[in-house]
Amino acid sequence: MNELIWNTRSEVVVFWNYYQIMLNFMFEKVNYKKMKELNIGGLEIYPPIVQGGMGVGISLSGLAAAVANEGGIGVISPAGIGFLYKHHSRDYLENCKYGLTEEIRKARQNSNGVIGVNIMVALSNYADLVQTSIFEGIDIIFSGAGLPLDLPKYLTPGSKTKLVPIVSSARATTLICNKWKTNYDYLPDAIVVEGPKAGGHLGFKVEQIEDENYSLERIIPEVVATANEIGEKYGCTIPVIAAGGIYTGEDIEKIMGMGASGVQMGTRFVTTVECDASDGFKQAYLDAKKNDVRIIKSPVGMPGRAISSLFLDEVEAGKTRPKVCPVNCIRTCDINTAPYCIIASLTAALRGNFRNGYAFAGSNVWRNDKIVTVKELFATLLQEFKEYKNKLELAFY
Ligand SMILES: Cc1cc2nc3c(=O)[nH]c(=O)nc-3n(C[C@H](O)[C@H](O)[C@H](O)COP(=O)(O)O)c2cc1C
Questions:
Q1: Measured from the CB, is residue 80 less than 6 Å from ligand 1?
Q2: Same domain? 271 vs 379
Q3: How many whole angstroms from its chain centre is CA 383?
Q4: Rounded to whole angstroms, how far apart are CA atoms 170 and 239?
Q5: 271 and 329 share one domain
Q6: pLDDT per residue over 234-275, tens digit each?
Q7: Please, where are the H alpha helices in the chain?
Q8: Does residue 305 have a pLDDT over 90?
Q9: Dihedrals phi, psi of 74, to nearest 5 degrees
Q10: pLDDT above 70: residue 24
């Protein structure tokens, strides 16, 4: 009798172990087809998708809240926001602060998710915008278009705002980390690496843009190695987020396979219902063909990627000149040499006026063929990611 009980018991144990192994295997398999969660200083983000900040007025509270509601990070761009809040006062700088406060509060009202702002170092009112964002308790500040070397100095006691620089190289990553650690005993909560296929201003020389040595796929492993090394030295983790030319779930899988912990996408979010740009601006995205995408020299002093327009043809032909500098919005812009006023032309484009403006866009803009909701876009990206994983699995067997 004892022997029978003993044998049955061992069979149950064997069966239980087998069951556990199968369960783990199935769980791993299901999870393997899911994107990994992104963690920025304790903020958990799933799917690990950041909607890139887009000025002027392209990503405000409407788009940011919609993205945050899907689990990603919704990012407001306050670049030139004072132009959009002209009715508030006669003072551009005051209108910028007011507009940013309004947009952050609206986004908070419409979402409980993670909301960030994107503040370009080149903006003349950089400090003002950073301080306003921290005062409003923004979750994350993304900062690029220059090196945000003194960003941590604006943090106030008790503030929970995370700081994320946007860089284009491992060198810039090291420089920022060293400066922040030495001067403020602070390290970035994450790093965004923007490659040369991105829309907007590019942190590369014109001749580097098409050079494979500067491709996102080359830079990502270098920045990940640097961030890991610094993280190990100081006992922390610095996740790296890849940006520029990422368009599908397959692209997300590939770049995360190279060590990125998340992605930042701009162009694909423009053709959404919730994007804050006008229908005219979105239509320019839908109409764009591959050879309409061009590299321009921006008055900010950096190259940029944009969709061709009548206005850009005139700029190239040397036919444009800014009459006045209305607000001195960019630190590095000189009215005496700038071929046009960037803030005026981007505000015109926001409203769909391409006679006086142009739309920034990433290299994949020509692939946009319909307007979808942010919810639909997230579902598509997750589906594409899963399908690509399935394809990889089939190839493996
Ligand atoms: C219309 C437009 C405006 C942008 N404006 C800004 C900006 O104000 N500040 C910034 O750091 N990046 C800006 N970007 C870059 C995005 O935040 C993002 O990193 C980039 O678009 C990613 O590349 P993708 O468009 O290929 O996805 C802009 C991009 C676009 C398309």
A1: no
A2: yes
A3: 21
A4: 13
A5: no
A6: 999 999 999 999 999 999 999 999 999 999 999 999 999 999
A7: 2-32, 61-69, 81-84, 92-110, 126-135, 170-184, 216-234, 249-257, 267-270, 279-287, 310-316, 342-350, 374-396
A8: yes
A9: -90, 130
A10: no
301, 332 contact by CB (below 8 A): yes
Question: Is 123 in the same domain as 175?
Answer: yes
Q: Which CATH number goes with the domain that contains 77?
A: 3.20.20.70
Let me know whether 308 and 216 are in one domain.
no
52 pocket-lining for ligand 1 (C-beta < 6 Å): yes
Q: Check pLDDT > 80 for residue 21.
A: no
Atom of ligand 1 nearest to the CA of 268: 27
Cα distance between residue 79 and residue 3, in whole Å: 79
Count of CB atoms situated within 10 Å of the CB of 158:
6
16 CA distance to ligand 1 centroid (A)? 53
Rounded CA gap, 275 and 167, in Å?
A: 25
> Is the CB of residue 123 below 6 angstroms from any atom belonging to ligand 1?
no
Q: What is the mean pLDDT of residues 44-67?
A: 98
pLDDT confidence of residue 103 = 98
C-beta of residue 176 within 8 angstroms of C-beta of residue 193: no
**Ligand 1 centroid from CA 236, angstroms:** 28
Q: Are residues 117 and 214 in the same domain?
A: yes
**Pocket residue to mutate for ligand 1, from 49, 51, 54, most atoms within 8 A of Cβ:** 54
Please identify, by atom number, the ligand 1 atom nearest to the C-alpha of residue 194. Answer: 19
Q: In the predicted model, what is the mean pLDDT of residues 119-141? A: 97
Q: Assess whether 181 and 75 both reside in one domain.
A: yes
pLDDT mean across residues, the chain:
93
Tokens encoding 318: 């040397």
Q: Looking only at Cα atoms, what is the longest distance across the chain? A: 102
Q: Answer yes or no: do 199 and 230 share one domain.
A: yes
Amino acid 324: pLDDT: 81
**At residue 143, does pLDDT exceed 80?**
yes
* Residue ID of nearest Cα to ligand 1 atom 8: 55
**Which sign, positive or negative, has the C-alpha torsion 197, 381, 254, 227?**
positive
Distance 118 CA to ligand 1 centre (A): 10
